[in-house]
Structure formats: structure tokens, C-alpha cells
Amino acid sequence: MTQVHAPILTASILDLLQPQSGQHFIDATVDGGGHTAALLERSAPDGRVLGIDRDGEMLDHTRQRLGEQVSSGRLVLAHGNFRDLEEIAASSGFGTVDGILFDLGLSSYHLDLSGRGFSFGGKQPLDMRFDPTDTTVESAAEILSARSEREIADLIYELGEERFSRRIARAIVRRRESEPLHLASELRDLVVSALPGPARRHADRSAARVFQALRIAVNDELGAITAALPQALGLLGARGRIAVLAFHSLEDRIVKRFFREQKHSGAVEILTKKPLRADDAEVAANSRAGSAKLRVAAKQR
Length: 301
Prior knowledge:
Number of domains: 2
Number of strands: 7
Order of helices and strands: HEHEHHEHEHHHHHHHEHEHE
Strand content: 5-15%
Helix content: 40-55%
Oligomer: single chain
CATH topology of the largest domain: Rossmann fold
Strand order of the largest sheet: 3-2-1-4-5-7-6
CATH superfamily of the largest domain: Vaccinia Virus protein VP39
């Protein structure tokens, strides 16, 4: 787990959140702890950070990496879903805070090392749960086994924006009549076979969209950020700041709409008139930074 997650746009996040000594922050998506470490450094010597993650393995890694900060009490780690932000903050001893960060990107660990079927390389089980210990959440394989053809097609089209969604859904339903899909590689091969001939030249793009749609559905990612944003605003003190790093249009649209609605009501000032993007150097170092969009707002009252 040496390369768990490369934090993106860290300098811009720090410039806009403006952490200072003694302030309190919430990193709602710890991942590998990169942004958390930066917030701790800038709020030294007595600032505090609450780090939340759905994946206990991410928290274990961060606990090892930032063990001294955990021991001193400057870093508090909590296992949970940020859709329960208010409850987690209260139970962790955090009341009003000065800034909250959401990094909605999928970590390098999940794609490359987790073995949960987030990517379609290798014979990984079709799981895709951020928290594999949560038995209340359906895995990707269970969704593909239980949903109707129309439901699967709508899911792939709406969350993956894949134009061949109906062909792919039909192939999935036909396949499960004889044998359910269990492995990520099986789903990838099925997507390829379902595409019309000319589209197979770009089959991996279609497969990536299908995998994205399933991951979002499994973890209810859009529902989580929709539920969390009002809670985050409520936890901020006056002039406290909320930063959201989004990686696809669906989640970015939710953030953009929420910030605009709150601006119209006088609740926030939007500090990023246009979303900030990674520069060429950062994208060259980390190709996943190319789709990142950072939006930041400051609470007015």
C-alpha cells in the first residue's frame, strides 16, 4: 500500500481553505491521508482534523502513516459514511469547524490493489463496495443478478452515460440465465461482446463507463454527497469553508447546484467562479488528475 492515493490539487485546496493554527477541519474522505497530512501541517501546532472513510483499510493505512498525530489527539479517525457527517462529527468530539473537504475521487488503492473489482484487470470478484464489511450494501454482482433488464440499462445509461446501455443490459440478463457474473473480467468481456462491431475499437471506454455506473450505484455516491452537503454547511462556523473535489459530471453538477442555491439564499460566497483544474504538470504526474474539478464556498452566516 505504498501508493494508496495521490492527493490532487493540494496547494489550491490549502490556499482556499486557509488553515491556521488552532483551527478544526474535517477530511470527509481520508483515502491515503495526503490531504489530511497537509491540513495537519498547516494548522500546526494545535489544529485538529477529523478524518472519515468508509474503508477501514484506508483508515488503517492513515493510522500507520500519521500515528504520531493520532497519538497526540490532533487527528481523530472515524470509520463511516460521510452521508452521516453530523452524527460522526458529534460522536468524535467535533462541533463547529473551520473547513470541510470532500475528495470524491476513487483512490489508486481501490483501482489497483483492493481486489474488489473496481477495475476490469485480473480475475477480481465483482464487489465494488467501499466498505466490504457492510453486509447491508449490495455488491455489483448482486445488483446484476437481481435487477431487471430495464433497471440495469437505466443504471448504466444514467450513471455511466453509456449509449449502448440497452445492448449491454440485454447481454447481462441473457448471461445470468445460465450463469451469474462473478468476476470483473467476465463483465468486461461481456460488455465487449455486446457492442456493435465498430464500437469495439473503443471497448474499454464503454467498459469503464459500465464499471463507473455500477460503482456509483453500489455505494450510492450521488445520494451520499447530496445528503452530506447541507450537513457540512451546518457544521461550519462563520466564514468557514467547504471544498469539494469532483471527478465526473454527475457529482460536480450536484455540488454546483448546491453552491448556487446557497449563494442565492445568502448562505455562502462561492470562491471559485469556475472550478479549478489540475495544471499540465500535475496531470502528467498523475493522469487521474485530468478530470478533477475543485469548487470552494465560504459560509456567510
